[in-house]
Write a structure and sequence with these properties.
Structural class: alpha+beta
Number of strands: 8
Number of domains: 3
Oligomer: single chain
Strand content: 5-15%
Length: about 500
């Protein structure tokens, strides 16, 4: 938003719809609501503050009606000039329109798609050099830095090269900084299929410093899409401020500026409004006489502007005194607006002063609730600490139990291996016992059989053979006794 929008917000809020009587003084609440918007968006108002604004305007209207003693109606039916309608393109000293996208003025190309060739040629002014883009490229764009922050109103594009495709639909984006976090769409426009210069007026003028031109579609089936030049027209902050000051100063200041500046400023054919604070310069008959002369001057100026080819807005070459006078009028207007605002503030203070105790009680209750919430939060924090400590102890106990279980598992495994070893040893011993038992039984049976044979032999033979058999049977008796004793020991052990 330009600087003069903050100094003279009346000019930017003039087109805002209002149900109350229009007023020339700057409404502070409205300025705060629209301070972050563009001048062209001043037609929208904040619905939540609409009632307060209406009350402020009504209060200001009553103040003005109380001061109007002459009854001439000079303070009624004022017309605030439309800043959008009163502004035009800036002109160079030669009379040509000022191109903010010219390389000679300081504009430059910052970025473009990688398929583009000769991007800087569209700012050079040489019609034989151009930007060449393959029509098959998906995203054809170019980022341009203007010579200064500009209220962009019109752009000029052209393709002067034959045997190439013309651009058709394109999009224009703006940003106050670069690299831009988010590009603001200024307009989607469509060009004609012609090899000539074309101009496009934006639907809504916007303040911007950096432009992005994106070529979306094209005519024909040529291989290259050519752009010969890009031109940007509008006004900068200084030009806009001068236009607002001069168009809102009234016919007297216009006449002074024409005399001192040698006619260096041309006004719009519809922008010869009466300044909203003319009656601050005088009261009574003098004010009425000035209004009459202003009406004659307005007629003369209107007939002069009607004969002009177009509304130009050049700089004031020698109107320093006229501009100073306008600034003094603006200062007086601001002083009166400030006094009105002070009265309105006192009225609001008196009106809403009774609500302060309720507000204080509500704040105290809120503070008590906050203290209670803080205490609850502290309790929760302590509970969380205790729970964390308990969880830590539980985790430590779990680790201890886990280590003991691991030791027990290892001992169990060692014991199991020992048991298995003892079982194997026991099986071996059992096998050995069976072997000893079987051998003992075998020898016992053999000894019994031998003794039985010797007895039979003793019965059938004589005494001589019996003595020999008796000597042999003693050995078998010893074998039978030892085998029986061994078998008995094995059986008793089991």
């Amino acid at each position: 938003m330009p600087l003069e929008a903050y100094i003279f917000p009346t000019q930017y809020n003039a087109s805002a719809p209002s149900t109350c009587q229009p007023s020339p003084y700057p409404p502070p609440l409205q300025e705060a609501d629209h301070g972050s918007l563009e001048p062209s968006n001043a037609t929208g108002s904040n619905s939540s503050a609409g009632a307060a604004l209406d009350e402020l305007d009504e209060f200001r209207s009553r103040i003005l009606q109380g001061e109007g003693d002459n009854g001439t109606g000079a303070g009624r039916g004022r017309h605030v000039p439309d800043s959008a309608g009163a502004a035009a393109h800036r002109l160079e000293p030669s009379g040509a329109e000022y191109n903010y996208a010219a390389a000679s003025k300081g504009a430059k190309v910052l970025a473009h798609n990688r398929e583009a060739k000769g991007a800087a040629n569209i700012l050079g002014g040489d019609k034989d050099r151009y930007l060449r883009n393959p029509c098959s490229a998906e995203d054809k764009f170019i980022d341009v830095e203007l010579s200064e922050e500009t209220l962009v109103r019109t752009i000029g594009l052209a393709n002067l090269e034959h045997y190439s495709s013309n651009f058709r639909e394109f999009e224009l984006y703006g940003s106050p900084s670069y690299p831009a976090e988010a590009w603001e769409l200024l307009g989607r426009l469509t060009a004609e299929n012609a090899k000539l210069a074309q101009r496009f007026v934006l639907p809504e003028p916007r303040w911007t410093r950096y432009l992005r031109l994106r070529l979306a579609t094209h005519y024909g089936s040529g291989f290259y899409c050519i752009l010969s030049y890009l031109e940007v027209y509008g006004v900068d902050a200084v030009e806009q401020m001068l236009q607002e000051i001069i168009s809102g100063a009234g016919p007297d200041a216009d006449a002074d500026a024409s005399k001192l500046g040698g006619g260096g400023v041309l006004r719009n054919d519809t922008a010869l409004p009466r300044h909203a604070n003319d009656r601050l310069d005088g009261v009574g008959g003098s004010g009425a006489g000035r209004n009459d002369s202003a009406g004659d001057g307005a007629k003369d100026n209107g007939s002069r502007v009607a004969g002009e080819a177009k509304p130009a807005t050049g700089r004031v070459p020698g109107g320093a005194d006229a501009v100073l006078k306008i600034m003094m009028q603006k200062m007086r207007s601001l002083e009166l607006g400030l006094s009105t605002l002070e009265e309105y503030t006192r009225a609001l203070n008196h009106r809403y002063g009774a609500r302060l105790p309720d507000l204080e009680s509500g704040l105290s209750q809120t503070a008590m609730a906050l203290d209670k919430m803080k205490a609850d939060v502290r309790g929760l924090v302590e509970w969380k600490g205790n729970m964390a400590k308990g969880l830590g102890d539980l985790e430590e106990w779990r680790s201890t139990v886990s280590s003991k279980l691991d030791d027990l598992i290892r001992d169990n495994a060692a014991m199991r291996s020992g048991v298995e070893e003892m079982r194997s040893i026991q099986e071996t011993m059992q096998n050995k016992e069976l072997a000893v038992l079987s051998i003992s039984l075998f020898f016992a049976c053999l000894a019994l059989f031998r003794l039985a044979c010797d007895r039979l032999l003793l019965l059938f033979t004589g005494k001589g053979a019996g003595r020999t058999a008796c000597g042999a049977s003693k050995g078998w008796m010893l074998v039978l006794a030892s085998s029986s004793f061994t078998t008995l020991l094995v059986l008793l052990y089991n």
